[in-house]
């Protein structure tokens, strides 16, 4: 567990940093290989950008709708840059809806787009596993197996490590570098996803 | 009709086997293994567990035992006087203490082992902080709660179970109100 990274007197939250890193590397990978799936890099870039931005705005709006009375004393907090006042599930839902609308408007092929996004999802899954390992979240049940880890008052399955390894395996399987262009073209759309 | 090469076929079979195994694992583990919910049994400084118990003193020598405060939700805030975000969120915590005095207990734990008590006391006086503050003289409570960064705030329900942990700050009054509402609703 390594929840906080100290840089001088500044404490950075390692899980959040890992997730940001995952999003960044994932987006880079998606952009790099988009053309292989006959998807315009520009369109995919816009799709991810709009989804992330709308997800952020949606997360704040839904938080506000859930707790409107809390904002009565300080209404300007609705514009606050602090990351706490966000509704995670709401943000994800809004981001998905916006991605669907954008894809429809630009006439992007649904399954090819998902295929093109898959390496990014896999990188994100790796970073999520590492973030869980850093924070101690998503912990496992108790075990007596020799590779159990001491966490939250018990020896537990290192589920975060299983999760990270599984995501790494998926990343290895879906990395488009592994596939010849003709294999991608021959494969049914959506199979990679 | 498309012809699949041998390696494509093997790859598809491999993926299919992985998917079947993964689905099987999910079903078997959900049916036969215990859940990870261990509420009300283990004490650990994270959401879903009982808050580790402690006993510390206030400046005037009054002993505060966490277990004895159960019955009301508790906002447990770890702070130090050298920590700027800690000081910045103190007025918001004070407002919550005054506004929800009958619903919630605000308890500040000063990490005195890493602070200078007279400076911390002066800060409290100058800013008219009236909620309960206890002094963690040897830092043992801060360490038991695995506080790696200040401020860190634990939100405990009326049974002493941790419902949320916020690392960092400053927390706004709005955020604190929503957390109090969640605790009151039993979320």
Task: Note down, in words, how this protein is organized.
The complex is a heterodimer of chains A (193) and B (187). With 193 residues, chain A is mainly alpha-helical. Chain A is 58% helix and 7% strand. In chain A, the strands form two sheets. Chain A has a two-stranded antiparallel ribbon with strand order 1-2. In chain A, strands 3-4 form a two-stranded antiparallel sheet. In chain A, a hairpin with a 2-residue loop joins strand 1 and strand 2. The model of chain A has no long low-confidence stretch (mean pLDDT 86). Chain B is an alpha/beta fold. Helices cover 38% and strands 18% of the residues of chain B. In chain B, the strands form two sheets. In chain B, strands 5-4-3-6-7 form a five-stranded mixed beta sheet, with helices on one face. In chain B, strands 1-2 form a two-stranded antiparallel ribbon. In chain B, strand 4, helix 3 and strand 5 form a beta-alpha-beta unit. In chain B, 35% of the residues are buried. The mean pLDDT of chain B is 88. At the A-B interface, loops of A face helix 1 and helix 5 of B.
What are the main properties of this structure?
heterodimer; A: 193 residues; two-stranded antiparallel ribbon; 6 helices; B: 187 residues; alpha/beta; 5-stranded mixed β-sheet; two-stranded antiparallel sheet
How would the blueprint of this fold be written?
The complex is a heterodimer of chains A (193) and B (187).
Chain A (H helix, E strand, L loop, with lengths): L3 E4 L2 E4 H20 L7 H26 L21 H18 L4 H26 L13 E3 L2 E3 L2 H16 L6 H6 L7
Antiparallel strand pairs in A: 1-2, 3-4
Helix pairs in contact in A: 1-2, 1-4, 2-3, 4-5
Chain B lengths: L5 H27 L22 E3 L5 E3 L8 E6 L4 H16 L5 E6 L6 H10 L5 E4 L4 H5 L7 E5 L5 E6 L5 H13 L2
Parallel strand pairs in B: 3-4, 4-5
Antiparallel strand pairs in B: 1-2, 3-6, 6-7
């Amino acid at each position: 567990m390594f929840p906080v990274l100290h840089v001088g007197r500044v404490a950075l939250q390692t899980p959040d940093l890992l997730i940001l890193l995952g999003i960044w590397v994932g987006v880079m990978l998606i952009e790099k290989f988009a053309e292989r799936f006959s998807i315009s890099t520009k369109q995919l870039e816009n799709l991810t950008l709009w989804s992330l931005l709308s997800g952020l705005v949606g997360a704040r709006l839904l938080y506000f709708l859930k707790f409107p009375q809390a904002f009565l004393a300080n209404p300007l907090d609705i514009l606050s840059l602090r990351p706490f006042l966000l509704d995670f599930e709401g943000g994800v839902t809004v981001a998905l809806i916006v991605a669907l609308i954008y894809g429809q408007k630009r006439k992007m092929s649904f399954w090819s787009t998902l295929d093109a996004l898959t390496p990014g999802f896999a990188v994100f899954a790796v970073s999520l596993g590492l973030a869980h390992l850093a924070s101690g979240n998503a912990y496992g049940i108790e075990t007596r197996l020799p590779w159990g880890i001491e966490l939250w008052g018990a020896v537990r399955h290192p589920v975060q490590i299983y999760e990270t390894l599984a995501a790494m395996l998926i990343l290895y399987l879906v990395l488009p570098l592994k596939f010849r262009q003709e294999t991608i073209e021959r494969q049914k759309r959506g199979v990679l996803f | 009709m498309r012809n699949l090469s041998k390696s494509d076929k093997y790859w598809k079979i491999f993926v299919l086997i992985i998917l079947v195994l993964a689905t099987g694992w999910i079903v078997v583990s959900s049916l036969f293994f215990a859940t990870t919910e261990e509420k009300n049994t283990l004490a650990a400084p994270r959401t879903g567990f009982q808050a580790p118990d402690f006993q510390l003193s206030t400046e005037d020598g009054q002993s505060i035992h966490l277990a004895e405060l159960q019955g009301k939700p508790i906002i447990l805030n770890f702070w130090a006087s050298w920590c700027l975000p800690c000081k910045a969120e103190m007025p918001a915590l004070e407002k919550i203490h005054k506004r929800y005095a009958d619903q919630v207990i605000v308890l500040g734990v000063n990490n005195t082992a890493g602070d200078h008590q007279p400076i911390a006391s002066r800060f409290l006086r100058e800013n008219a902080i009236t909620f309960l503050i206890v002094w963690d003289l040897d830092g043992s409570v801060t360490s038991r709660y695995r506080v790696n960064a200040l401020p860190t705030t634990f939100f405990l329900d009326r049974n002493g179970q941790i419902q949320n942990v916020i690392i960092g700050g400053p927390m706004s009054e709005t955020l604190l109100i929503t957390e109090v509402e969640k605790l009151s609703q039993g979320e």
